[in-house]
Amino acid sequence: MAAPTALRPVRLFAALCLFLAGCGPQPEQPVTRLSDINADSVVIVGRLELQPPLRPNEQQLKMGTFDPFDAADRFRDRGFLWFGRVADTPAEKGDFVMNPRLGETYFLRVPKNTPYLLGGYIMAQYVTRMTSPRSMTVDDSRIEIPGGVRYDIRPGDRAIYVGTLVLHRDEFNEVTKAVIVDDYAPAAAAFKQRFGQGTELRKAIPRTEAPRRAAQ
Protein backbone atom coordinates (compact mmCIF):
# COMPACT_ATOMS: atom_id res chain seq x y z
CA MET A 1 0.00 0.00 0.00
CA ALA A 2 1.26 3.44 -0.83
CA ALA A 3 2.16 5.73 2.03
CA PRO A 4 -0.33 8.46 2.89
CA THR A 5 0.16 11.58 0.81
CA ALA A 6 -0.50 15.06 2.15
CA LEU A 7 -2.59 17.23 -0.17
CA ARG A 8 -4.29 20.57 0.03
CA PRO A 9 -8.00 20.39 -0.85
CA VAL A 10 -7.51 22.69 -3.82
CA ARG A 11 -4.85 20.33 -5.25
CA LEU A 12 -7.14 17.32 -4.95
CA PHE A 13 -9.96 19.27 -6.56
CA ALA A 14 -7.64 20.30 -9.40
CA ALA A 15 -6.51 16.71 -9.94
CA LEU A 16 -10.11 15.54 -10.17
CA CYS A 17 -10.88 18.33 -12.63
CA LEU A 18 -7.95 17.42 -14.83
CA PHE A 19 -9.04 13.80 -15.03
CA LEU A 20 -12.81 14.12 -15.09
CA ALA A 21 -13.64 17.54 -16.51
CA GLY A 22 -12.05 17.43 -19.91
CA CYS A 23 -8.43 18.45 -19.35
CA GLY A 24 -7.07 14.98 -20.16
CA PRO A 25 -8.12 11.69 -21.78
CA GLN A 26 -11.66 10.84 -20.74
CA PRO A 27 -12.98 7.31 -20.13
CA GLU A 28 -15.04 6.22 -23.13
CA GLN A 29 -18.79 5.66 -22.88
CA PRO A 30 -20.24 2.32 -24.13
CA VAL A 31 -21.16 2.23 -27.81
CA THR A 32 -24.85 1.75 -28.52
CA ARG A 33 -24.92 2.19 -32.32
CA LEU A 34 -22.31 1.19 -34.88
CA SER A 35 -23.39 4.15 -36.98
CA ASP A 36 -21.73 6.36 -34.35
CA ILE A 37 -18.32 4.87 -35.17
CA ASN A 38 -16.36 6.75 -37.83
CA ALA A 39 -13.60 5.37 -40.06
CA ASP A 40 -10.89 6.43 -37.59
CA SER A 41 -12.24 4.33 -34.70
CA VAL A 42 -13.15 0.75 -33.89
CA VAL A 43 -15.40 -0.91 -31.32
CA ILE A 44 -13.36 -3.06 -28.95
CA VAL A 45 -15.34 -5.95 -27.46
CA GLY A 46 -13.90 -7.84 -24.51
CA ARG A 47 -13.98 -8.32 -20.77
CA LEU A 48 -11.76 -7.58 -17.78
CA GLU A 49 -11.79 -10.04 -14.87
CA LEU A 50 -10.03 -10.17 -11.53
CA GLN A 51 -9.37 -13.52 -9.80
CA PRO A 52 -10.30 -13.83 -7.06
CA PRO A 53 -12.99 -11.19 -7.64
CA LEU A 54 -13.34 -8.17 -5.40
CA ARG A 55 -15.16 -9.08 -2.20
CA PRO A 56 -18.18 -7.03 -1.10
CA ASN A 57 -16.89 -3.76 0.37
CA GLU A 58 -13.28 -4.72 -0.36
CA GLN A 59 -12.68 -1.46 -2.20
CA GLN A 60 -12.28 1.42 0.22
CA LEU A 61 -13.39 4.56 -1.63
CA LYS A 62 -13.97 7.54 0.61
CA MET A 63 -13.62 10.84 -1.23
CA GLY A 64 -15.12 12.96 1.51
CA THR A 65 -16.73 16.18 0.29
CA PHE A 66 -14.19 16.59 -2.52
CA ASP A 67 -15.82 14.41 -5.16
CA PRO A 68 -17.64 16.86 -7.44
CA PHE A 69 -17.53 14.53 -10.46
CA ASP A 70 -18.40 11.28 -8.61
CA ALA A 71 -14.91 9.83 -9.10
CA ALA A 72 -15.78 7.02 -6.70
CA ASP A 73 -18.25 5.65 -9.24
CA ARG A 74 -15.47 5.57 -11.86
CA PHE A 75 -13.40 3.44 -9.47
CA ARG A 76 -16.07 1.16 -8.01
CA ASP A 77 -15.94 -2.34 -9.58
CA ARG A 78 -14.16 -0.89 -12.61
CA GLY A 79 -10.71 -0.87 -14.15
CA PHE A 80 -8.78 1.72 -16.14
CA LEU A 81 -7.08 0.56 -19.35
CA TRP A 82 -4.76 3.00 -21.11
CA PHE A 83 -4.00 2.89 -24.84
CA GLY A 84 -1.34 4.66 -26.86
CA ARG A 85 0.24 5.16 -30.25
CA VAL A 86 3.70 4.05 -29.06
CA ALA A 87 4.35 0.77 -27.24
CA ASP A 88 6.74 2.04 -24.54
CA THR A 89 4.61 4.98 -23.39
CA PRO A 90 4.06 4.95 -19.59
CA ALA A 91 0.50 3.80 -18.97
CA GLU A 92 -1.05 6.95 -17.52
CA LYS A 93 0.59 9.10 -20.18
CA GLY A 94 -1.35 7.24 -22.85
CA ASP A 95 -3.57 8.87 -25.44
CA PHE A 96 -6.83 7.11 -24.58
CA VAL A 97 -8.41 5.41 -21.58
CA MET A 98 -11.23 2.89 -21.15
CA ASN A 99 -13.10 2.36 -17.87
CA PRO A 100 -14.81 -1.06 -18.16
CA ARG A 101 -16.86 -2.62 -15.40
CA LEU A 102 -15.21 -5.77 -14.03
CA GLY A 103 -16.69 -9.07 -15.20
CA GLU A 104 -18.97 -7.54 -17.84
CA THR A 105 -18.61 -7.59 -21.62
CA TYR A 106 -17.72 -4.10 -22.80
CA PHE A 107 -18.33 -2.39 -26.14
CA LEU A 108 -16.02 0.61 -26.21
CA ARG A 109 -14.67 2.86 -28.95
CA VAL A 110 -10.90 3.10 -29.45
CA PRO A 111 -9.12 5.26 -32.03
CA LYS A 112 -7.43 3.06 -34.62
CA ASN A 113 -4.14 4.92 -34.16
CA THR A 114 -3.86 3.80 -30.50
CA PRO A 115 -3.48 -0.01 -30.80
CA TYR A 116 -1.20 -0.54 -27.78
CA LEU A 117 -2.64 -1.55 -24.42
CA LEU A 118 -0.14 0.18 -22.15
CA GLY A 119 -1.46 -1.04 -18.81
CA GLY A 120 -3.78 0.30 -16.16
CA TYR A 121 -5.11 -0.32 -12.68
CA ILE A 122 -8.01 -1.25 -10.45
CA MET A 123 -8.30 1.06 -7.47
CA ALA A 124 -8.25 -0.94 -4.24
CA GLN A 125 -8.25 2.01 -1.85
CA TYR A 126 -8.68 5.76 -2.08
CA VAL A 127 -9.44 7.35 1.27
CA THR A 128 -9.14 11.04 2.03
CA ARG A 129 -8.75 12.35 5.58
CA MET A 130 -8.74 16.00 6.63
CA THR A 131 -5.69 16.76 8.79
CA SER A 132 -6.37 20.48 9.14
CA PRO A 133 -8.78 23.05 7.69
CA ARG A 134 -6.38 23.53 4.77
CA SER A 135 -4.88 20.11 4.12
CA MET A 136 -5.67 16.40 3.93
CA THR A 137 -3.99 13.04 3.45
CA VAL A 138 -4.82 10.41 0.87
CA ASP A 139 -4.34 6.69 1.48
CA ASP A 140 -4.39 4.91 -1.85
CA SER A 141 -3.41 1.55 -3.30
CA ARG A 142 -3.94 -0.02 -6.71
CA ILE A 143 -3.98 -3.38 -8.39
CA GLU A 144 -1.67 -2.69 -11.32
CA ILE A 145 -2.75 -4.09 -14.70
CA PRO A 146 0.07 -5.24 -17.00
CA GLY A 147 0.32 -3.90 -20.53
CA GLY A 148 2.55 -4.49 -23.52
CA VAL A 149 -0.14 -5.88 -25.84
CA ARG A 150 -0.73 -4.69 -29.40
CA TYR A 151 -4.24 -5.14 -30.74
CA ASP A 152 -4.58 -6.20 -34.38
CA ILE A 153 -6.65 -3.25 -35.61
CA ARG A 154 -7.05 -3.18 -39.40
CA PRO A 155 -8.10 -0.22 -41.58
CA GLY A 156 -11.48 -1.75 -42.51
CA ASP A 157 -12.46 -2.89 -39.00
CA ARG A 158 -15.59 -1.58 -37.36
CA ALA A 159 -15.57 -3.99 -34.39
CA ILE A 160 -13.05 -6.53 -33.07
CA TYR A 161 -13.11 -9.06 -30.26
CA VAL A 162 -10.00 -9.02 -28.07
CA GLY A 163 -10.83 -11.70 -25.49
CA THR A 164 -11.15 -11.72 -21.71
CA LEU A 165 -8.13 -10.36 -19.86
CA VAL A 166 -8.01 -12.37 -16.62
CA LEU A 167 -5.83 -11.00 -13.82
CA HIS A 168 -4.82 -13.44 -11.09
CA ARG A 169 -3.80 -11.72 -7.84
CA ASP A 170 -2.25 -12.79 -4.56
CA GLU A 171 -3.07 -11.73 -1.00
CA PHE A 172 -0.98 -8.58 -1.46
CA ASN A 173 -2.98 -7.47 -4.53
CA GLU A 174 -0.05 -8.15 -6.82
CA VAL A 175 -0.97 -9.55 -10.23
CA THR A 176 0.82 -12.90 -10.43
CA LYS A 177 -0.47 -13.92 -13.85
CA ALA A 178 -2.37 -12.29 -16.69
CA VAL A 179 -3.92 -14.42 -19.41
CA ILE A 180 -6.19 -13.70 -22.37
CA VAL A 181 -9.09 -16.14 -22.69
CA ASP A 182 -11.13 -16.75 -25.84
CA ASP A 183 -14.83 -16.32 -25.00
CA TYR A 184 -15.80 -15.40 -28.55
CA ALA A 185 -19.13 -17.28 -28.83
CA PRO A 186 -20.98 -15.52 -25.97
CA ALA A 187 -19.35 -12.20 -26.87
CA ALA A 188 -20.48 -12.51 -30.51
CA ALA A 189 -24.02 -13.36 -29.37
CA ALA A 190 -24.08 -10.30 -27.10
CA PHE A 191 -22.70 -8.21 -29.98
CA LYS A 192 -25.49 -9.29 -32.35
CA GLN A 193 -28.12 -8.73 -29.70
CA ARG A 194 -26.80 -5.21 -29.15
CA PHE A 195 -26.23 -4.15 -32.75
CA GLY A 196 -28.50 -6.44 -34.75
CA GLN A 197 -28.12 -9.22 -37.29
CA GLY A 198 -25.76 -8.65 -40.19
CA THR A 199 -23.11 -6.96 -38.04
CA GLU A 200 -19.65 -8.49 -38.04
CA LEU A 201 -17.37 -8.96 -35.04
CA ARG A 202 -13.90 -10.00 -36.16
CA LYS A 203 -11.93 -12.14 -33.73
CA ALA A 204 -8.62 -10.39 -33.06
CA ILE A 205 -7.32 -11.90 -29.84
CA PRO A 206 -3.71 -10.81 -29.21
CA ARG A 207 -1.19 -13.60 -29.72
CA THR A 208 0.51 -13.09 -26.40
CA GLU A 209 -0.98 -14.84 -23.36
CA ALA A 210 1.23 -13.13 -20.81
CA PRO A 211 1.09 -9.34 -21.07
CA ARG A 212 4.09 -7.67 -19.50
CA ARG A 213 3.91 -4.91 -16.94
CA ALA A 214 3.86 -1.52 -18.61
CA ALA A 215 6.63 0.94 -17.85
CA GLN A 216 5.70 3.32 -15.05
What would you note in describing this structure?
By secondary structure, this protein is mainly beta. It has one domain. Helices cover 13% and strands 38% of the residues. It is built from three helices and twelve strands, in the order βαββαββββββββαβ. The strands form two sheets. Strands 1, 3, 4, 5, 7, 8 and 9 form a seven-stranded mixed β-sheet that branches. Strands 2, 6, 10, 11 and 12 form a five-stranded mixed β-sheet that branches. Strand 7 and strand 8 form a beta hairpin. The longest helix is centred in the first third of the chain and has 12 residues. The chain is globular and about 60 Å long. The N terminus is likely disordered.
Return residue spans where pLDDT drops below 50 for at least 5 consecutive residues: 1-24
What does the largest sheet look like? Answer: 7 strands, mixed
Please trace the helix and strand order, writing H or E for each element: EHEEHEEEEEEEEHE
Query: Share of helix among residues?
Result: 10-25%
What is the residue-averaged pLDDT? 82
Count of discrete structural domains = 1
Number of strands: 12
Shape: globular
Number of alpha- plus pi-helical segments? 3
Give the strand content. Answer: 35-45%
